[in-house]
C-alpha cells in the first residue's frame, strides 16, 4: 500500500538488498577520496506502511571509493528487532531500546560505525554494512541516544544526549573514542520536547527545548505536537566550567537541525540552525505522516537563523541568515563547535524553486550559490570531504546521492565544494530512495586501496 507521500516518487522504497562492484564513473574521481560514503534512510520492507516517515526501517546505502575507483555499492537494512516487527513499547508499557528503526543517521566514532535513531540505542554495523547489534557503550547507556551526536575535532570525544517525555527529560553524555562513557548527567530545567539535534562549542553544549512537546494524543507513532503555550528555549551548558546550564527564551520556533555553533571571545555563544515557525513545522509534519492536504513534495519552510546567546545575561539576539527555505545543513566536520562560515543545505520545491537544489551559504561573504541537479532529480544531504592539503574552508568535495525519477536511476555525485561543479558522477546500480543523513568515513592511510571489492575489512571497525 504505497499511498503515503514518503513511500512514493523519490522516496519509493527498494524491495531488496544488492551488491555491485566496479561501478562506472563519468568524469574523474579524485584519487584522494579513499573511504566509505554511507547514507541512511527509511525504507520499510515490501508490504509495510509505517504511520510516520520516520518509523520506516532504516536502510544503509554505501559506496566504497579508493584509488580513483568506485569499488562497490551495497544497500543493507539495519537488522534490528523493529525490522522484524518488534514494537518500541512493550505490552507492559516499557520501552525496548533495541526496537530501533535505526534509519536517521550513521556515524563513525573510534572506528565504530553506528546507525542511529533517537528513540533507541545505536546499532553497530561493519564497513560492509552488515549489522553487528545494539551498542550500549559497554553496558553504560541505559537510555536512548540522539541521532545527532557531535564529535569534538580536537579531543575526539563524542558528545550526545538523550531526551524523554519523563524525568529526567534531558541527559547529557560524553564518550571516549574507545566507546566508554566518561560523563553522564541530567540537565536540569529541560521540558518534554522533541529534541532532534543539539550543538557543541569548544566549551559548551547547547540544547534546543522546542514548543513541540510530548503529546499522547498524536497517534502517528511519534507522540509529539506543537503546543502554543510552550516557549522555545535554548539551554547553554558550561561543560568545562561550573556555571551549570542557562535556559534562554527565544522566538517560538523549532530548530530541527543545527548548522554549527562556537564560543566567542566575550563569553557569548553563536548558534546557527534551521528554524521552523508553527505553520512551517505543521506543513512538514503533514508530509511526514501523509495527512490530508499534505504538500506533494517534502518541504522545509525552515529559515537558517543565527542566535547570539549571552549565558551570563540570559539573553539572545536572533536574526535570519537567508530567506530560502532549506534543511539538512552540513559543514566541514573538522570545524564542529568552532567558527565556520560555509554551510551546505538542501532546498525543496516551493518557496521560489521549481525543483530540488543544493545550496551553499557563505555568511562571511553573503554569497549564496545553488546547484540544480536537473528536472525530476533530487539531491540529498551533501557531505563535505576536505581536499588533501586544502587550506580554504570550502577546499574539498561534496558527496550527494541524486535520485532521478525519469531515468529510474541514481548517481553519487562528487561536486567541487568551491564552485559546485561536478568532478565525478558515479553510476549506482539502482535508484536510491531519498533518505536522511550520511557520513564520509575516510580509510586509514595504510588501508587505502587495500580492500579488494567484496572482501571484509575488519581493521576498519572494532565492534563490541
Ligand atoms: Fe536529523
Give an account of the 3D structure.
The chain has 464 residues and is mainly β. It is 3% helix and 40% strand. It is built from one helix and 33 strands. The strands form eight sheets. Strands 2, 28, 29, 30, 31 and 32 form a six-stranded antiparallel sheet that branches. The protein has a five-stranded antiparallel sheet with strand order 1-5-4-3-33, with no helix packed on it. Strands 6-7-8-9 form a four-stranded antiparallel sheet, with no helix packed on it. The longest helix has 12 residues, at 278-289. It is globular, with a radius of gyration of 21 Å. It starts with 18 loop residues before the first strand and ends in a 22-residue tail after the last strand. Residues 445-464 have low confidence and may be disordered. Bound molecules: fe (ii) ion (FE2). Fe (ii) ion binds at residues 104, 147-148, 196, 257, 437. This is Dioxygenase. Residues 439-464 are annotated as: Disordered. It is an enzyme of class 1 (oxidoreductase).
Short key terms for the protein model shown above:
464 residues; mainly beta; Methylamine Dehydrogenase, Chain H; globular; binds fe (ii) ion
The average pLDDT is 93
Structure annotation, total helices: 1
> What are the distinct ligands in this entry?
fe (ii) ion
Helix/strand-derived category reads mainly beta
Q: What separation lies between the terminal Cα atoms?
A: 38 Å
Compute the CA-based radius of gyration. Answer: 21 Å
Strand tally is 33
| Named CATH architecture | 7 Propeller
Per the principal axes of the C-alpha atoms, what is the gross shape?
A: globular
* Percent of residues in β-strands: 35-45%
- What fold name goes in the CATH topology slot? Methylamine Dehydrogenase, Chain H
Low-confidence stretches: 445-464
CATH class: Mainly Beta
Measured as a percent range, the helix fraction is under 10%
Biggest sheet overview: 6 strands, antiparallel
Amino acid at each position: 500500500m504505497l499511498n503515503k507521500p514518503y513511500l512514493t516518487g523519490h522516496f519509493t522504497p527498494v524491495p531488496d538488498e544488492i551488491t555491485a562492484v566496479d561501478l562506472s564513473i563519468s568524469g574523474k574521481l579524485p584519487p584522494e577520496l579513499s573511504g566509505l560514503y554511507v547514507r541512511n534512510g527509511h525504507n520499510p520492507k515490501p508490504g509495510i506502511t509505517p504511520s510516520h516517515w520516520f518509523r520506516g526501517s532504516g536502510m544503509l546505502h554505501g559506496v566504497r571509493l579508493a584509488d580513483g575507483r568506485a569499488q562497490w555499492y551495497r544497500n543493507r537494512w539495519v537488522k534490528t528487532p523493529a525490522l522484524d516487527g518488534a514494537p518500541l513499547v512493550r505490552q507492559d508499557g516499557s520501552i525496548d531500546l533495541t526496537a530501533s528503526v535505526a534509519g536517521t543517521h550513521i556515524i563513525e566514532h573510534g572506528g565504530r560505525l553506528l546507525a542511529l535513531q533517537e528513540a533507541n540505542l545505536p546499532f553497530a554495523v561493519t564497513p560492509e554494512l552488515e549489522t553487528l547489534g545494539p551498542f550500549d557503550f559497554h553496558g553504560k547507556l541505559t537510555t536512548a541516544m540522539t541521532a545527532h551526536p557531535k564529535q569534538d575535532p580536537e579531543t575526539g570525544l563524542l558528545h550526545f544526549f538523550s531526551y524523554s517525555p519523563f524525568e529526567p527529560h534531558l541527559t547529557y553524555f560524553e564518550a571516549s573514542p574507545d566507546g566508554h562513557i566518561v560523563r553522564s548527567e541530567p540537565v536540569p530545567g529541560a521540558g518534554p520536547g522533541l529534541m532532534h539535534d543539539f550543538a557543541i562549542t569548544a566549551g559548551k553544549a547547547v540544547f534546543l527545548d522546542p514548543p513541540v512537546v510530548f503529546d499522547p494524543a498524536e497517534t502517528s507513532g511519534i507522540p509529539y505536537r506543537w503546543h502554543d503555550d510552550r516557549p522555545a528555549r535554548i539551554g547553554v551548558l558550561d561543560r568545562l566550567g561550573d556555571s551549570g546550564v542557562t535556559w534562554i527564551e527565544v522566538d517560538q520556533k523549532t530548530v530541527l537541525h543545527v548548522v554549527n555553533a562556537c564560543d566567542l571571545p566575550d563569553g557569548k555563544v553563536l548558534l546557527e540552525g534551521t528554524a521552523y515557525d508553527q505553520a512551517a513545522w505543521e506543513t512538514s509534519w503533514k508530509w511526514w505522516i501523509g495527512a490530508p492536504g499534505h504538500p506533494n513534495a517534502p518541504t522545509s519552510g525552515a529559515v537558517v537563523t543565527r542566535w547570539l546567546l549571552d549565558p551570563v545575561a540570559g539573553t539572545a539576539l536572533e536574526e535570519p541568515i537567508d530567506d530560502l527555505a532549506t534543511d539538512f545543513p552540513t559543514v566541514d566536520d573538522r570545524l564542529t563547535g568552532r567558527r565556520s562560515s560555509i554551510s551546505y543545505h538542501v532546498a525543496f520545491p516551493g518557496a521560489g524553486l521549481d525543483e530540488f537544489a543544493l545550496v551553499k551559504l557563505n555568511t562571511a561573504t553573503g554569497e549564496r550559490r545553488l546547484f540544480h541537479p536537473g528536472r525530476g532529480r533530487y539531491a540529498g544531504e551533501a557531505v563535505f570531504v576536505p581536499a588533501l592539503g586544502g587550506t580554504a574552508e570550502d577546499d574539498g568535495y561534496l558527496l550527494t546521492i541524486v535520485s532521478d525519477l525519469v531515468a529510474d536511476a541514481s548517481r553519487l555525485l562528487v561536486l567541487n565544494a568551491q564552485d559546485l561543479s561536478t568532478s565525478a558522477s558515479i553510476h549506482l546500480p539502482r535508484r536510491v530512495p531519498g533518505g536522511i543523513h550520511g557520513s564520509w568515513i575516510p580509510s586509514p592511510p595504510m588501508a587505502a586501496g587495500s580492500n579488494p571489492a567484496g572482501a571484509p575489512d575488519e581493521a576498519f571497525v572494532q565492534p563490541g
